[in-house]
Design goal:
single chain, 9 helices, about 300 residues, mainly alpha, about 70% helix, three-stranded antiparallel β-sheet
């Protein structure tokens, strides 16, 4: 396993790399607080929301030239009077945008005398540039909040599979940790969703099975992560068994060494006692040699 920096913290870009490529490094996320995963979502959605918003705004201006022209070409002609919205062309009666405007007026409760699409276009065209900038910022915040909730919901779907796999693997893990791993495991799926949204909006690309592919990718990621966790736990168990075996062998060797040392000390003690006794016996033997005065 690769080491993090000296402080033990994982940088944002390294976190992205781990989430997308280095699946074996997901073990680094396990000891972290859940707030780290939420912080990762916040930073990622901020970046993705900026990319999404800028691409949509650029597409609008490239395709229509201005927001007023976009409204003029996208929204069918209509008039509103007497609390009733009527399309100029009867064929546009079931148009989704017309229904959306009508529902918005009714739900807002704001008293409006009368207006038409031309009034909206003129009003939009008369707005100062600062209003467009402010509107873009609010739209970007809306995209960011939408992505955050979408990511959390996706991770919740992923965590259900993760819990199932963990139970089959007989691995106990806190829900907060499992949820955090599911957040990281769904990173690629969220990035692909934003990319697909841009392609769909700007170039009209449509993939019928994208929703299935999106969730399958996240499932593959979390499955691979759990298998790696299981593999790492097995390695740790094998290493623990090996260490325990070595400890037993060392303990046995020490016990044998201690026995040998004890026997050696006992033998040395016996020899010392024996030598002491022999010395005492020699000292106690009477001297039978004649003195010099004797004949």
């Amino acid at each position: 396993m690769k080491e993090t920096n000296e402080t033990g913290k994982i940088g944002f870009f390294k976190r992205i790399k781990i989430a997308l490529i280095d699946l074996e490094e997901y073990l680094l996320f396990i000891p972290e607080n859940f707030s780290k995963a939420l912080g990762f979502i916040f930073k990622m959605t901020l970046i993705l929301a900026i990319i999404l918003t800028v691409s949509e705004v650029l597409n609008l201006y490239i395709r229509y030239g201005s927001l007023g022209n976009c409204i003029d070409k996208v929204i069918p002609d209509f008039t509103y009077s007497g609390k009733e919205l009527k399309p100029v062309n009867e064929n546009d009666k079931d148009n989704e945008i017309i229904k959306l405007i009508d529902n918005f007026i009714k739900s807002s409760g704001v008293p409006i005398a009368s207006f038409s699409k031309a009034d909206i276009v003129n009003k939009v065209n008369s707005l100062p540039k600062s209003s467009y900038v402010l509107g873009t910022i609010f739209y970007g915040l809306f995209n960011m909040i939408d992505l955050i909730f979408y990511w959390l919901l996706t991770a919740m779907l992923i965590v259900l599979l993760a819990i199932l796999l963990l139970s089959f693997s007989k691995i106990k893990m806190k829900f907060s940790i499992t949820y955090a791993l599911s957040i990281y495991a769904s990173t690629l799926s969220i990035i692909l969703t934003v990319a697909y949204s841009i392609l769909n909006t700007c170039f009209g690309v449509y993939i019928d099975i994208f929703d299935y592919v999106f969730i399958i990718i996240a499932y593959i990621y979390i499955s691979a992560v759990i298998l790696m966790i299981k593999s790492e736990l097995i390695k740790q168990q094998i290493e623990l068994i090996r260490i325990t075996k070595v400890q037993k062998e060392v303990k046995k060797e020490l016990e044998e060494q201690n026995k040998e040392d004890s026997k050696k000390k006992e033998k040395e003690k016996e020899n010392d006692e024996k030598n002491k006794e022999e010395k005492e016996e020699k000292e106690n033997v009477p001297n039978d040699e004649p003195n010099g005065s004797e004949i």
